[in-house]
Amino acid sequence: MGEIATWGYGIAGAAYLLFALYIFVAWRGGLPGGVLLAAVVLSSAWAIASSFNVAGEGVAGLLAAALLDVLRGGAWFAFLIILSLPLWGRRLRWPALLALAVLVAQFAALATEAVVDRAALPVQPALVAWLAHAVIGLMLVEQLYRGLPANSRWGIKPLCLALAAGYIFDLYLFADAFLFSRIDFDVWAVRGLVHALLIPLIVLAGIRSPSWTLRMSVSREVVFHSTALAGAGVYLLVIAGAAYYVRYFGGDWGRALQMTLLFAGMVLLGALLFSGSLRARLRVLISKHLFSYRYDYRNEWLRFTQALSSSDSGLDLGQSVVKALCDLVESPGGGLWLRDAFGNFAMHSRLNQPASDWVEAQDSVFVRFLDEREWVINLAEFRARPGHYEGLVLPSGLSDLGDAWLVIPLKASDKLIGFVVLGSPRTPFEIDWEVLDLLKTAQRQAAGYLERMLAAEALLEARKFDSFNRMSAFVVHDLKNLVAQLSLMLRNAERHRDNPEFQQDMLETVAHVETRMRGLMTQLQEKRSIDPPRPVELVTLLEAVCHSRRALRPAVELRLEAAAPLEVNAHPQRLERIIGHVVQNALDATDEDGKVAVTVTEACDALQVVVEDSGCGMTADFLRERLSRPFQTTKTSGMGIGVFETRQYLGEIGGQVRFESEVGKGTRVTITLPRNQRGQ
Fold first, then answer.
1. Model pTM?
2. Fewer CB within 10 A of the end CB, N or C, for the chain?
């Protein structure tokens, strides 16, 4: 028992010390909170001193522990008197004087113990003083509890219960010692643990009593897990006791039956701990009987937001919304209905629920009710009291879901974007005003997330169509140039159809156009560039551009003013296309007796392709304001996207283009391309 006493008082001292630190952090300067802090600190000091002096035989150590016991008792008396003073006023002076007298008697008893031989005394003064201390303590607790109105006792009840239990234990201990003239060491050994067990009740009273000016709070999660752990411990003790009984009274089969019972008990405990239904029942029980509000709103909101924004569980956003709402009301699963492309509501996501083909029309009575009222529909309540939901008509698809319980509308930007149908809860769950307010707040948050998801999907679709349309415009632009080549060939065929050289050129031109058209169709179908960037021999590419336009007038002149080899990193087809656009524009702007030249020069680590013509030129305003914008052109048959594509592609590969032009004198286009380092 000495070891039990040492550990018991030591645990009590540590518990009171941690409680004192918690009060110190939560204290906001009020007198009740300060006195409570002093009482808890002295209780910690008393328990620690008692732990160190259990095995000691010195009188000084025992008297020091007893002195701290008197001081902590006086602090608790002061705390009770301060709390009772507003209730009793001047009438409290007599209980306060009695408490003071008891404390003086305890100090006197300690002095007597130190200087007088106890064996010579007929009655031990210390036992009488400590017995009187317990009686006065019970009286002060009774005065405090009785002085409060019945509807105001909820907050102070845990404190009164804790202190009354402590005083009753001391009353038993010292009454027994007084009767038999000796202290029952077995009872005294657990005194520290008994007083440590009172701390949770004092904490709960502090949470319920803001007048103490203590900002104290206990997480519901801590209470839940502590209660579950305590329940599991009690369960294991019962199983162990039953197994002990079976072993010693079961004869030859005793040990085998004991092992079987222990194993079965552990399996059952594991099943209970992992049971969602049992956890739900425990949460409801704790919320109903230990807290003034059903939810810890801060934790619920953080958990709900985390559930919506987290993707670690492998759920999509729709399933995350369903799960987050389910967790608020202990529902195992449900389904999410969102607007489809036609404005009707179809199942988008589901969690622990079968798929449903139910599609609700956007103009149905059910949808209008959700949109206008924004009510959370409790289907059980609707069946019991349909008049409460005046104007509501349940669709047949909802009735087919079977275990449907709650219908939660999802509104964002004053528009109904969907609704969630939750299944029946794991445990009976009361839907009151607090639950409804929490669900309404949560649905707005969820609706905001879903609205952004739908907007992102719509934007992605729009971007896909925009990309496809832009590529289509480029392809059509190329087709226009190819058609122009075929048209020119047909016009010249009447005059040169008997010329063998023209016939050969015509076949080569048709083959070239056919190859280009196949490439364009493939690019349009695959929605990507056909070739990856690779080293391109620039002179060969320019010769191909000039050769494909050899039948046009004026003839394109190619000049080389750079040392070979001339290589750049690019997509061969795209680079040929944009240079071909520039050359074609120069040809279109120049008369047959004019001049078009393509010159290749070096500039540091780059190559420059300069296309010059003596055509009509462009105005300064057009160059500055309209040239680089898509669908702007000076040609009657042009589309105005050739220059736009040229700038866009050159920017992708690190090049650039510069235009210089003057009306009546011509245009100079300088294309700068980064040179391939291997080609130097």
1. 0.42
2. C
Q: What gap in Å lies between CA 280 and CA 2, rounded to an integer?
A: 43
pLDDT tens, residue by residue, 476-511: 666 766 777 677 677 777 777 777 777 777 777 787
Ramachandran angles phi, psi of 291, nearest 5° = -130, 150
pLDDT of 639 higher than 50: no
Q: Which residues contact 368 (CB under 8 A, 6 or more apart)?
A: none
Length, in residues, of the chain: 680
Is there a contact between 352 and 333 (Cβ–Cβ < 8 Å)?
Answer: yes
User: CA-to-CA distance for 305 and 321, rounded, in angstroms?
Assistant: 10
- Which has the closest alpha carbon to 419: 450, 452, 385? 450
What is the C-alpha separation between 147 and 82, in angstroms, rounded?
13
To the nearest whole number, what is the mean pLDDT of the chain? 79
Closest CA to 488 of 551, 542, 548, 537: 551
- Please report the pLDDT score of residue 119 as a whole number: 45
10 Å Cβ neighbour count for 614? 19
What's phi and psi for 202, nearest 5 deg?
-65, -40
Query: What's 589's DSSP letter?
Result: T
Helix spans in 527-656 (H): 538-547, 572-588, 620-625, 642-652
Q: Which of 74, 65, 5, 92 has its CA nearest to residue 35?
A: 74
Residue 92 DSSP symbol: G
How far apart (Å, rounded) are the C-alpha atoms in residues 212 and 243?
48
Q: 245: which DSSP letter? A: H
Bridge partners, 657 (sequence order): 671
Q: What whole-number distance in Å separates Cα of residue 291 and Cα of residue 217?
A: 10
Dihedral over alpha carbons 588, 592, 593, 595 (to 10 degrees): 40
580 burial level (CB within 10 Å; 0-12, 13-18, 19+): buried
Which contacts qualify for 649-657: CB closer than 8 Å, 24 or more apart? 649/574, 649/575, 649/578, 650/578, 653/533, 653/568, 653/569, 653/570, 655/606
CA 458 to CA 635: how far, in whole Å? 36
pLDDT tens-digit readout, 536-587: 888 888 988 888 777 778 888 998 887 777 888 888 878 888 888 888 889 8
Distance CA 36, CA 446 (A): 44
568 and 536 in contact (C-beta within 8 Å)? yes
